[in-house]
Specification:
Layout (H helix, E strand, L loop, with lengths): L1 H8 L22 H13 L8
Length: about 50
């Protein structure tokens, strides 16, 4: 991904916005401790949207 971003930002005056979507999937419920850890990490990284 880094080479792509580099090519996009090499042009003077251009701006690049990166977005990351994480979609964990499991047939079973996530353990509460894991959910709390993920929410804490999302808060630390200042994610814009968080679903429980």
């Amino acid at each position: 991904m880094e080479p792509i971003v580099e090519q996009l930002t090499i042009v003077h005056g251009k701006r690049v916005e990166l977005k990351l979507e994480i979609v964990p999937k499991s047939p079973l419920a996530w353990p509460r401790q894991k959910v709390e850890a993920m929410i804490e990490n999302a808060n630390t990284l200042v994610f814009l949207e968080k679903d429980r």
